[in-house]
Structures are given as C-alpha cells and as structure tokens.
Amino acid sequence: MKSIEEIRNYFSSIKPGNLIQLSSYDDKYPAWVFRDHGKFGVAIEVSNSFNINERFSNARFYTENIWMNNEELNFLWLSSSTEELRYEFASICAVFLDAGIDGEDRIRILKDPLEWWNSYKELVGNKTYLKEPYSLLGEMISFYYIYQSDKTATWGGPKAASIDISSINELVEVKSTVLKYDNVIQISSQYQLSVDRDQNLYFCRFEEADYGYSINDLATRLISNGYPDEKLEEALSSQGFEKNMSVRDKKYELLEMKKYKIDSSFPIIDFNSVVPSEFTDHVIKITYTIDLTGINSEAISKIFLN
Asked: Record's InterPro entries (predicted)?
C-alpha cells in the first residue's frame, strides 16, 4: 500500500517537532504523521468532546489539542517510542488511518475511538504488565477509610518501597482479590510485612459490577476530603492509570474488607531467622503465600463509603 510506504518513509526521515499531512490520504479524510522527541506516530482530527488517554504494549492512544492555521484543534494520536519496531508499527498506523469505503471506517473511529482501540488490543495481545484496577482500588478505598480520621496518612502509590499507606498511627499493606472464596495473598518480599513496626494488613474482596466504585469515584472522594489533587494524580499516573484512561471508570462492588494486625500471631517469614548468616549477602529476596483463613481479623463495615 502506498500509504504504508509513505508512513514508513516519514518515520525514518521526519525531524523531531514536525507534523506533516500525508499525501496518500484523501483530503476528505486527512491524516498526519509526526515525530517528537522520544515518540513517533500518526494523527487525525476529532471532536473536542473526546478526552482519551490509553496505553498498551508499545503504543499510546490519546487526544491532545494543538494550534493549526490559527485555530486550536483536538487531535487523536497513535504513537510509539520503540524505534526498532517502527516498520511494523507503520502497518498498524495505516489501518488506523484508512478511511474505508465512502469513509465508513473513519466515521466509525470518529464516533467511538475506543472501539477501534479495544479491537487493536484484542488482536495483538498485551505484552506489558498493568496493575489490575481492583488492586489499586483496594489501596484507594483503604486509604480513604484511614484518611477520613487521620489526615497525617499518605498513600505511597508508586513511590512506596514496601508500604502502601503510612501515618503517625500505623503502616498499612493492602491486598485485594476478585475471587469469591479465596483468602490467599502473595507476599512479594521479606520487607513487606514486619512485626517490628506498628503495621496492619487490609484485605479487600471485590466483584466487578455495573454499580459500586471506580478509581475515579475514589479520587473524587479523596479530593473532596482535602487530599491534594496533584499529589493524587501523580500517584495514579505513576501506577499506569493516567487521567482520562477508560479503566479508571471500571466499577467494582466491595464485598468485604478486613483488617489484620501484624504481630507474633500473624504468619510471616523472618528473613534473618530462615537464611543462615553466611548466605544473607546472596539470598536477595523471599516471596511466599499466606492463607488468611482462620487468622484473627477485624471486619470493617462498608458504611464509611455511604
């Protein structure tokens, strides 16, 4: 296809900071190719009503306004930062830009861009890890529960080395599941739980539902309760959940929430007691699995979410 070759040629020759209209596309359905520092891709103009920000594998799909011909326009961008795959990425870009018979494909994208994006993801398969939204939601709900009565609390989010939530009163590790009857949790390092500090484990069980709570719902509640908007968005973005991402609206019902005190009666592995001293410089990390069934806990009423 002539369009693919044109896109490939521009990917290899266009200078950073340039946006060029592609000549192989009809002026009725214009398309642009661009290169910026660290990324390259294609774009089409869309309605100002769209605010999209999606990431998947080596690609990003998002809207952003630019000035063109003395007018501020909203563009939908499909970009990548992986130079070694730009030849293959050009083929995907050509499919995205193809207007189809009588423009039907372009009309379909302009009507519902996320439909095309979700089809693309299903086709290529996910190659990167993204934290499950219910896992992040568990941290946010736990933090909201604590923050209502303790404004010293901070949510570690992406910057937390081994603690999800901390305050002058407690340190908190949060675990979440969508399995209805499974009480098993994974401990990812020997430093995640410790009896030597005032620490609690919060366990949240969710079920995906059309009602319930989403990441955006909890963000709104936290901001309304005085938590800084910029600080919250920084934490969400660094976790891979940037503003306008559709996954932030995915809802879950909180089925139960429990609090476990990390003390001598809680089953944890002490690194120094299980690793001989002569090996502590070589055994770098310990991971293990805990079944919470039968361990003493405090049930947290969901009334605080009402």
From this structure: DUF4420
